[in-house]
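Why should sequence recovery work at all? Because a backbone constrains its sequence more than one might expect. Tight turns favour small or flexible residues, buried strands favour hydrophobic ones, and helices have their own preferences. The token representation captures these environments compactly. In the example below, the structure is given first.
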């Protein structure tokens, strides 16, 4: 019987096997990767961008609304004061949005979009298989599927730089978003150490 030898761990697998029974790595030609292109992402990846900053903007907006209401309800109502307050808080919101874009650039600077050029569903199942195999010994990777079918992974051992987001592009291929060096290491752990990367 012909056996497929896994390039990652050296274990022998059946010829028809798609994944290694030991490490979960793909051993099928269908999911072979040689070179992956990557570039800077426009997605909000960093936790501060996703949660803290939007909440701060909302709090400032609500505070401004209460200030305007208090002025309107006071006995010394002055239309000009209300207009100035509205203008002031619109200016603050605009300034916060500008700072948000600056923070977005710097906090997201090290996060990249990796074009895997493989069918989304194939890569999705491969990642699930590998995560399941890794978590058998120690539950380090948290995986969650959203309503769109996208995968969000969090490697607890890597801290804030351990976020990975698997999405589908317009051609139906898989795209993985994450911190540059950790994502490269993660991809190689899934598809083998021979994978090369080219930055656009």
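From this structural description, the recovered sequence reads:
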């Amino acid at each position: 019987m012909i056996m497929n030898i896994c390039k990652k761990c050296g274990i022998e697998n059946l010829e028809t096997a798609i994944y290694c029974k030991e490490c979960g790595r793909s051993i099928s030609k269908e999911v072979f990767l040689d070179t992956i292109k990557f570039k800077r992402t426009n997605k909000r990846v960093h936790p501060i961008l996703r949660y803290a900053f939007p909440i701060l903007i909302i709090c400032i907006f609500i505070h401004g609304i209460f200030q305007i209401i208090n002025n309107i309800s006071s006995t010394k109502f002055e239309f000009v004061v209300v207009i100035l307050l509205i203008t002031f808080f619109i200016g603050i919101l605009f300034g916060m949005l500008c700072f948000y874009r600056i923070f977005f650039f710097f906090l997201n600077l090290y996060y990249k979009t990796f074009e895997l050029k493989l069918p989304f569903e194939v890569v999705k199942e491969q990642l699930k298989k590998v995560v399941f195999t890794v978590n058998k010994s120690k539950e380090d990777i948290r995986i969650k599927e959203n309503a769109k079918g996208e995968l969000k992974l969090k490697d607890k051992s890597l801290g804030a730089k351990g976020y990975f987001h698997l999405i589908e592009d317009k051609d139906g291929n898989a795209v993985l978003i994450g911190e540059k060096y950790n994502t490269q290491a993660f991809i190689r752990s899934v598809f083998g150490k021979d994978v090369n990367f080219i930055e656009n």
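A few observations help interpret the result. The longest helix spans residues 79-107.
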